[in-house]
Amino acid sequence: MGSFMSQRTLHSLFKPTSVAIIGASNSEKRAGNVLMKNLLSSGFSGPIMPVTPKYRAVMGVLAYPNIEALPIKPDLAVICTRATRVPAIVETLAQFGCKVAIIMASGMAQEVNEEGVSLLDLAMQHAKRYGMRILGPNSLGILLPPLGLNASLAHASALPGKIAFVSQSAAICTTVLDWANNKGIGFSSFISLGDATDINFDELLDFLGRDSRTSAIMLYIDSVNEKRHFLSAARAASRNKPILVIKSGRSAEGVRAAKLHTGGIGGNDAVYEAAFRRAGMLRVNDLIELFAAVESLAHSNPLQGERLGIISNGGGPAVLAVDELILRGGKLAELSQETIAKLDAVLPSTWSKQNPVDIIGDANASRYASALNILMDSEELDAILVLHSPSALGESVEIADALIKVIHAHPKKNRLNILTNWSGEDSAYQARKRFTKGGISTYRTPEGAVGAFMHMVEYRRNQKLLQEVPQSIPDNIPTDSQTARKLLQAAQAKGKAVLETHEASPILRAYGLNTIDTWFVKDADEAVAIANEAGYPLALKVQSPNILHKSDVHGVMLNLTSAEDIRHAANAITQRVHQANPDAIIEGMIVQKMALTAGAQEIRVAVISDPVFGPAICLGEGGSEWDPTRDAAVALPPLNMALARYMVIQALKTHKLKDRHLPLGLDMNALCVMLTQISHIVIDCPEIASLDLNPVLAAGENITLLDVNIRLHDANTDNTSRLAIMPYPKELEEFAELKNGLKVMLRPILPEDEPKHLAFDNSLSDEDRYKRYFGVRSKMTHEEMAVLTQIDYAREMAFIATAKGPDGDDITLGAVRASIDPDNTEAEFAMAVRGDHQGIGLGKLLLEKLIKYYQANDTPVLTGFTMFENRNMASLAKSLGFKVTFDMEEHLIKMHMDLKSDTPTHS
């Protein structure tokens, strides 16, 4: 694929060939001294160049009086001076041609110059002008153990390994480093972001997601600023490797502290959690859990399944391990008769005869080794946990050595995951060191080992769930955004801030959501007139702008069955409201039909606006003390039926929603349709600030909204970027007619298209597939199809052409797709059309649509490659204004269009 520009500039951060230290020093306590020491002692092979006018040499290395005196342009510069000097240094470095600078100084955002511009803004302006990138300020630096580079203020160096660690907090960096060195765990890169003014999580995730040296990524996050870029990058990277997140600010106090720490916006913890889950990342709660997870990731193979086998020399630890496994929703493997018979042959007759395999107290090395070998041979397991408790015969280290031998000699060593737990102190410590050295994960407690295994399971489950094909919403459910927005804008024009049930009802009906019949009346007489027409029983509620919770002032009367009931209730309510609040304005009353609640369950759904991630959907049980981010499952829109199901399962699993097994109760499909439609409302209607449906009556397939409250933004708020995840761009749908009269729909692809897209892909002839995939390729798997249909509209686009087939169902006839690099400098496209529909102008329509889309997106360049054999594609591209060149070596035709200057010609 095309090279990525931001990735190009980051190349100098991750693979620098030379380093300059601005402010290098010979005096012990100075940052410029620690930095030189670390650089010189870690084995970096490129030039290390100290810059200081004070000394001829720093630590024996010839120093340069200023930046202009440097003999070469450094790839990386580390600025160790105090804040006031940084802007001028950044300007000089950038002019001189340095690619990336690390700023260590803190407090730059607070200090301003004579013109009132902060030092940070000043430095950033200089860097941007020359295209130099900045890590920091307030950064501890970067360690790249595979290159022997330690350009940091850390008190220790790091070992080389396969984990990348990125942290907003410098203190956490040093803690993690200490722990990892003690455990012999290494890193592919170790980066302190500091205030992340320029280089941020999103670009690093894009780089590390593709970095072959990195097999897992760990993040320590205080706050996220660029929500959309962050989630796009995280989602793309987590498809390739696990990403573990530890997030500070779980409590309100923690949020305030984190805010002071990095000056970020404090969002809701539950919404962060939902965002991480949606991007396929794993949230861990504390450093201990993070370390355990790292231990398993440093030494593990991707899990093939979830079945765990356990070997132990004592019943107690095995029981602890099984309890933890079952509690966390794991699966204990079942051993076949054949495997049990094999174990019988090598173990004493008193062994447990099942999983966990308890091989009895005086288990020696050869018994452990034979048992492990048999379990590794069997087809019933995906992972094995070996436990050892100290016994009188203390062969702790010999047993460990024997197991390491078995594991390394076994043909399945790269497919199975082996975890070990040696408990106890001295002899166990020696054994644990042997395992670590042998590349086998080892833990201090049985629970820790199982916890780490479950992280691997959860990562795998999460990826699978995120790739599920959603079913479509049933055809009979309307989605009429025009009607809804007209009503909302009319309310805004009247200066309304809140819509109650009777006003909100037509808006929700436009999306097929049913509210109970509701009328607004001025007084008791009007109420009686309506009652006589609508029929009893009815409910009466006060309507007053001064009262938030009607039930708090007893402003609600239920089950009224006659005209005198209604008059009596109206008077009683009015009196009670005036007692509670003498100044309350009573606008009138709300009359509602009584819902048939017998056998149904009450739930609550809300949409809140989070300061970081924007709108978030909450699902729970309700109640007057309800806090949506504490008492509900939370998900980010857009939802489809599969993501809605994931949300309901999450709510049930965490007991935020209880299935009360009522006769009519919860119907999964109906709940998912409701949640998906609420997501559509949120996406289609930027006028809505928040939404509260409380209660919602779930009676099997019938879901009724009893009480609705919609808060509106005022009419001039700009809400274009309020969504954290870019929704399906409905506005890009269009109809066209082909030369032969065939009517086709051109539109962006949807996750729901997967079955039809698979049929389309399978319909391509061998020759077309060969041209499309540059070689022979087998049928697509579900995982591969998910990547093609569940696209991130923020960084890729795929348009498909569909037409009605003979049975009235849509058929996919052609597809064109392109992805842009994170910096939007170039899009690269690929295209295919069904064999029986070639030559009728489909390809041209699709490609023209793609060109228009990327022009509107301000992407400068559109390119594509096709094989020599595909002359049709080349001539189509030429006719649309692409420059076409032949690459003889690669045997490819290259198509290139400058979208800024070449306007496509329409032949």
Automatic annotation (TrEMBL):
- Which Pfam families does the record cross-reference, listed alphabetically? Acetyltransf_3, ATP-grasp_5, CoA_binding_2, Succ_CoA_lig
What is the superkingdom listed in this entry's lineage? Bacteria
Where are its TM segments located? none
Q: Which InterPro entries match?
A: Acyl-CoA_Synth/Transferase, Acyl_CoA_acyltransferase, ATP-grasp, ATP_grasp_subdomain_1, CoA-bd, GNAT_dom, NAD(P)-bd_dom_sf, Succ_CoA_lig_flav_dom
UniProt keywords, alphabetically: ATP-binding, Ligase, Nucleotide-binding
**Which intervals hold domain ATP-grasp?**
505-737
Q: Where is the N-acetyltransferase domain?
A: 744-900
* SUPFAM superfamilies, per database record: Acyl-CoA N-acyltransferases (Nat), Glutathione synthetase ATP-binding domain-like, NAD(P)-binding Rossmann-fold domains, Succinyl-CoA synthetase domains
- The protein in question is named CoA-binding domain-containing protein
What organism does the UniProt record list as the source?
Shewanella decolorationis S12
Source organism phylogeny: Bacteria, Pseudomonadati, Pseudomonadota, Gammaproteobacteria, Alteromonadales
